[in-house]
Specification:
single chain, about 230 residues, alpha/beta, Rossmann fold, Arc Repressor Mutant, subunit A, five-stranded parallel β-sheet, four-stranded antiparallel β-sheet, 8 helices, globular
Length: about 230
């Protein structure tokens, strides 16, 4: 289902988003407050493919809505809408489980490109059934394509689509330094992301799921000035 829940309190921005995404073939449900978004989410058990969440709202904010969505599912894609100056907001949103962010103001083409890219990642789970049975093993970890799950020792860990794609790249290239650009290309598509910070933040989030002590990572190692490496014997 190409459906998206758009949460934005400013009517003009919301209409701009809705018109452009409808034109791109998406079915949109609108919410103008966090409270309204949560009640729509409660009434929609099948969920949405994607969520566009404005961060700054008068009541319940976009972070809280993001957290609630991630408590229910890791299958959907989440894009946060943030103000240009709020770097900290973008990092916080990604740490809470968002996959991407769009900085205001944005053009229709930027909006649709970001949404299309994430929709492809999220719907890939269902479109590429031939790959669904794929499974990767690396040291004490197993990555299971069908359920998008990481198994650490015997403990299953749920992954978002973005986290799954990142881990898949690492598991296919164990002990190899992979550049941030290559990670970005593999996860979001070729040359799509010009902000590599999004890679760093997603790595931080992955470390919280993977590492014994995320402050002293031993499995996902930073390669200074280049990228990251998955250490298979960690
Ligand atoms: Ca707002």
């Amino acid at each position: 289902m190409k459906n998206i829940l758009v949460l934005e309190d400013e009517a003009t921005i919301r209409e701009f988003i809705v018109i452009n995404l409808q034109r791109a073939g998406y079915e949109i449900v609108e919410a103008s407050t966090g409270e309204e978004a949560l009640s729509i989410i409660d009434r929609t058990p099948t969920g949405f493919s994607l969520y566009l969440l404005d961060i700054n709202l008068p009541g319940i904010d976009g972070f809280a809505v993001c957290r609630r969505i991630r408590e229910r599912t890791s299958d959907s894609g989440i894009i946060m809408l943030s103000a240009r100056s709020q770097e900290i907001d973008r990092v916080s949103g990604l740490m809470l489980g968002a996959d991407d962010y769009i900085t205001k103001p944005f053009s229709p083409s930027e909006l649709v490109a970001r949404v299309d890219a994430l929709y492809r990642r999220v719907s890939g789970k269902f479109e590429h059934l031939e790959r669904a049975g794929e499974e990767f093993k690396c040291g004490r970890f197993r990555l299971i394509g069908l359920t998008r799950t990481l198994v650490k020792d015997d403990e299953p860990i749920e992954l978002t689509q973005v986290e799954y794609l990142m881990l898949k790249l690492f598991f296919e290239n164990p002990d190899v330094a992979i550049s941030r650009e290559s990670i970005s290309d593999a996860v979001w598509g070729d040359g799509y992301h010009n902000d590599l910070k999004v890679v760093d933040v997603n790595i931080r989030r992955l470390r919280m799921k993977v590492e014994e002590d995320p402050s002293y990572p031993r499995t996902i190692i930073k390669v200074w000035g280049y990228g990251y490496k998955w250490v298979s014997k960690s």
